[in-house]
């Protein structure tokens, strides 16, 4: 807004207001008197510009955006710790601690004999990525085998600035109230492990609301996550009583998204000199994974997801060693592939035959 204002311009404007019979040259008394003032005035304009940017949600920095969000009852989602499954040759004590690579884990709950839930002591998504042999931090008599095998509830990083900004701006467009659709979406997103959710009105047995969820890693949620969500939203033992997030009278069914296996064939690839399929296969698989992940991140706001051949082929041309690609098929058909509303893509075979 004030980008056209400079200190030199402010000084010139001030000198213009001084009578012409006064010496206004650099080094004169009047010039020396006005110059420091116009520097301070220029700094004031810069401060005003910064203040204006921080006053509005679409331009505010994170610090001031958080302050603006408080006026709307919104706060950044905090980082959450991953919950994982570990297997042991015996029942280990609740609270016992183990290490794996750079992370430590605490045993929190018994699932069955020798099978326990463990919480990563480091918050964030980094706790979702480590599996393998566990080393006890303190001696446990008789322990010969300890292994981390499965992610149950994904850990999450603290909400990033742009996601928070979107929630703030969206809060002006629809009112979350009394179990309406936005109320469900907002409150479910506050729970750990959620990457996306869709809400439906249904008539299915006792249920009149269905929530379909995607986990925070943008994959099919585990049964453990679904159980914890069901309990938080509408406990099975007292369904419809309003003892969870759902209002009284709402009987809610919590389901996970399903996977649709996607097989992609690139039968006609023109390779650069010295390249063949074996040289680019890993890069092509990674490209497909990246594209599918981008789609899964839009699942919540898409009905339904569509895999587009033109997107695949254009990304193929960015891979070193590939000059051209034609006649691509998805699940045996040379056309775009539309998934069901509650389905996400999972990479199957990627071939060049």
TrEMBL record:
<dbReference type="InterPro" id="IPR058531">
    <property type="entry name" value="Baseplate_J_M"/>
</dbReference>
<dbReference type="InterPro" id="IPR058530">
    <property type="entry name" value="Baseplate_J-like_C"/>
</dbReference>
<feature type="domain" description="Baseplate J-like C-terminal">
    <location>
        <begin position="268"/>
        <end position="351"/>
    </location>
</feature>
<comment type="similarity">
    <text>Belongs to the Mu gp47/PBSX XkdT family.</text>
</comment>
<dbReference type="InterPro" id="IPR052399">
    <property type="entry name" value="Phage_Baseplate_Assmbl_Protein"/>
</dbReference>
<dbReference type="Pfam" id="PF26079">
    <property type="entry name" value="Baseplate_J_C"/>
</dbReference>
<feature type="domain" description="Baseplate J-like central">
    <location>
        <begin position="176"/>
        <end position="255"/>
    </location>
</feature>
<protein>
    <submittedName>
        <fullName>Phage tail protein</fullName>
    </submittedName>
</protein>
<dbReference type="Pfam" id="PF26078">
    <property type="entry name" value="Baseplate_J_M"/>
</dbReference>
């Amino acid at each position: 807004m004030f980008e056209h204002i400079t200190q030199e311009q402010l000084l010139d404007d001030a000198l213009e207001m001084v009578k012409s019979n006064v010496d206004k040259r650099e080094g004169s008394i009047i010039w020396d008197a006005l110059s420091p003032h116009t520097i301070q005035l220029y700094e004031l304009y810069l401060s005003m510009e910064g203040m204006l940017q921080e006053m509005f949600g679409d331009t505010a920095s994170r610090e001031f955006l958080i302050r603006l969000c408080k006026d709307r009852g919104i706060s950044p989602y905090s980082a959450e710790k991953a919950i994982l499954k570990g297997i042991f040759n015996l029942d280990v004590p609740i609270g016992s601690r183990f290490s794996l690579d750079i992370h430590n884990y605490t045993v929190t709950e018994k699932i069955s004999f020798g099978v326990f839930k463990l919480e990563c002591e480091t918050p964030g998504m980094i706790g979702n990525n480590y599996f393998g042999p566990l080393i006890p931090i303190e001696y446990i008599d008789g322990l010969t085998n300890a292994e981390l095998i499965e992610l149950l509830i994904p850990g999450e990083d603290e909400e990033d600035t742009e996601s928070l900004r979107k929630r703030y701006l969206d809060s002006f467009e629809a009112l979350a109230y009394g179990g309406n659709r936005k109320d469900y979406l907002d409150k479910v997103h506050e729970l750990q492990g959620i990457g996306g959710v869709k809400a439906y009105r249904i008539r299915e047995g006792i249920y009149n609301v269905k929530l379909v969820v995607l986990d925070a890693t943008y994959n099919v949620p585990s049964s453990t996550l679904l159980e914890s969500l069901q309990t938080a939203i509408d406990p099975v033992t007292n369904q419809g009583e309003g003892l969870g997030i759902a209002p009284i009278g709402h009987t809610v069914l919590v389901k996970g998204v399903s996977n649709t296996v996607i097989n992609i064939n690139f039968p006609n690839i023109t390779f650069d000199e010295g390249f063949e399929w074996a040289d680019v296969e890993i890069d092509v698989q990674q490209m497909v994974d990246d594209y599918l992940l981008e789609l899964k991140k839009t699942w919540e706001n898409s009905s339904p997801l569509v895999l587009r051949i033109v997107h695949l082929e254009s990304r193929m041309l960015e891979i070193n060693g590939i000059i051209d690609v034609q006649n691509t098929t998805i699940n045996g058909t040379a056309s775009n592939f539309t998934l069901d509303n509650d389905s996400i893509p999972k990479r199957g075979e990627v071939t060049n035959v």
